[in-house]
C-alpha cells in the first residue's frame, strides 16, 4: 500500500528520466565540441587579438569547465534515478553539483558582464577605446 504523501507519487514516468539522460549527453557533447571550436578559432586566428577576443576565450573556457564538471554530476544523478537505484553518494554529488554550478554560473555572468562593459565602451567612446581597454 502506497501512502498518498509517498515519494513515488511525485516522480515523473521512467521515460522522462531516460529522455533527460539522453538530452544531457547530447548537451555535453555539443557544449564540449562547440566551446573547443570557439577557443581554437580565437587562439589560432590570424586577425589581431582585441580585448573582446580574450573575453570570448574566457567565456568559452568557463562554459567548457561547466560542461565537463557540472553536467556529468547531473548525468549521474539522473541515470541513478532512471535505473531505479538510489545513488550511494547522493550527498557528495549534490554538494559537488551545487558548487560547480554556482562557481561556473558566477564566472559566466562575470564574463558576460565584462563583454558588455567592453562593448559599451567601444560604442560610447570609440576614440578612447584603445587607451581605456589596453592598460
Automatic annotation (TrEMBL):
Per UniProt, subcellular location reads as: Cell membrane
Under the GO molecular function aspect, what terms does this record hold?
A: G protein-coupled serotonin receptor activity; neurotransmitter receptor activity
Give one GO biological process term: chemical synaptic transmission
Q: What are the record keywords, sorted?
A: Cell membrane, G-protein coupled receptor, Membrane, Receptor, Transducer, Transmembrane, Transmembrane helix
Q: What span is annotated as the signal peptide, if there is one?
A: none
Q: State the similarity comment.
A: Belongs to the G-protein coupled receptor 1 family.
What protein is this chain from?
A: Alpha-1A adrenergic receptor-like
Q: What organism is recorded for this protein?
A: Paramuricea clavata (Red gorgonian)
Amino acid at each position: 500500500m502506497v501512502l498518498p504523501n509517498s515519494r513515488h507519487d511525485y516522480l515523473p514516468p521512467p521515460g522522462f528520466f531516460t529522455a533527460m539522460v539522453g538530452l544531457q549527453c547530447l548537451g555535453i557533447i555539443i557544449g564540449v565540441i562547440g566551446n573547443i571550436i570557439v577557443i581554437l578559432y580565437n587562439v589560432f586566428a590570424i586577425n589581431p587579438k582585441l580585448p573582446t577576443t580574450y573575453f570570448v576565450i574566457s567565456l568559452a573556457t568557463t562554459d567548457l569547465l561547466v560542461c565537463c564538471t557540472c553536467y556529468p554530476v547531473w548525468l549521474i544523478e539522473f541515470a541513478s534515478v532512471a535505473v531505479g537505484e538510489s545513488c550511494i553518494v547522493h550527498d557528495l554529488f549534490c554538494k559537488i553539483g551545487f558548487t560547480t554550478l554556482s562557481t561556473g554560473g558566477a564566472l559566466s555572468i562575470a564574463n558576460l558582464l565584462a563583454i558588455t562593459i567592453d562593448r559599451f565602451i567601444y560604442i560610447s567612446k570609440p576614440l578612447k577605446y584603445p587607451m581605456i581597454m589596453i592598460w
